[in-house]
Amino acid sequence: MSADCVKNGSGFPKTAFLLGAGLGTRLRPLTENCPKPLLPLGGKPMICRAMDALIALGIKRFIINTHHAAEVYAEKFPGGNYRGVPVELVHEPVLLETGGGLKNIESRLSPDDKNLLVYNGDILADLDLKKLVAEHLRSRALATLLLRTDERGNVNFEEEKQTQGGKVADLRDRLGNAGTRRCKFTGIYCVSRKFFDEIPAGKIESVVEAFLRVIVLGNGEIRGIIDDAGTWRDLGTLAEYEAAQREFKI
Fold first, then answer.
1. Long-range contacts: 170-175, Cβ < 8 Å, 24+?
2. Do the strands 155-159 and 181-192 form a parallel or antiparallel pair, or are they unpaired?
3. Which are the contacts of 131, defined by CB distance < 8 A and separation ≥ 6?
4. Which H or E element spans position 98?
5. For a surface tag, which of 3, 46, 143, 242 has the fewest beta carbons within 10 Å of its beta carbon?
């Protein structure tokens, strides 16, 4: 199943949730008064590069969580839109982490949001989002993670030769399941609406904990799909950010 074939179907994600609430401590002093995802790369905030890719995919609405320097988001998205696509900012007075932040936006979703695309706002990537969505819709998993092969990664993946995807066997070596391939989690993934039932309301926790609960309890599948062809960078340090800036100036 290709994503183009299902793009206009009822299950294709119309909304993307971008994680924008991090403190960006490793990028200080640049992030003292600016959220990390809003630092510029090639003349535009890095989060907007993710939004450009998501608009090209077919996303019709953005939700961004905020915490540190939240007012800067309002300045960057005046009128609550980006390139004509609505942008809703959801402030977290207390930082909820990736799982709590995801649960916190559940009430903002519409009945049409049967699946949601989640994207860390502080990464620079050129990956196959269509492939991710197609695998998620084909398998009907609770969550489908976009992965890259990396022996130093924290995801143990059980690859299925008959499909382009496979099952996530373990994360952070918590369960002792080796899988067949070691991967890095890119911070980009799709979740079904049912996945929200696996995240407790009002709890500050990583989304990884919810992934692990699903694997252990067998309430559904956490799947993955590998994209080693595209590019991916976590701009988490001053050195990495400055290197990316130099590349955009070339």
1. 170/215, 171/208, 171/211, 171/212, 172/208, 174/212, 175/212, 175/215, 175/216
2. antiparallel
3. 3, 164, 225, 227
4. helix 97-104
5. 242
Mean pLDDT of successive 10-residue segments in the chain (250 residues)?
A: 50 95 81 88 90 96 94 92 96 94 96 95 91 94 96 93 87 93 96 96 94 92 93 85 76
pLDDT of residue 18: 97
pLDDT at 7: 53
pLDDT of residue 24: 73
Whether the Cβ atoms of residue 140 and residue 220 lie closer than 8 Å to each other: no
Cβ count within 10 A of residue 216: 10
Given a contact cutoff of 8 angstroms between Cβ atoms, the answer to whether 20 and 65 are in contact is yes
Q: If we measure between CA atoms, which residue out of 187, 177, 52, 51 comes closest to residue 119? A: 187
Quick one: CA dihedral 29, 33, 38, 40, positive or negative?
negative
CB 96 within 8 Å of CB 104:
yes
**DSSP strand E in the chain: where?**
15-19, 40-41, 44-45, 61-66, 81-82, 85-91, 115-120, 123-126, 143-149, 155-159, 165-171, 181-192, 222-226, 231-234
**Spatial distance between the Cα atoms of 40 and 30, rounded to a whole number of angstroms:** 10
* pLDDT at site 162: 76
Predicted pLDDT at 1? 47
Question: Is there a contact between 109 and 60 (Cβ–Cβ < 8 Å)?
Answer: no
Q: Name the packing angle between helices 129-139 and 46-57 (round to 10°).
A: 50
Nearest to 203 by CA among 116, 109, 103: 103
pLDDT of residue 75: 93
Q: Which one-letter DSSP state was computed for residue 14?
A: -
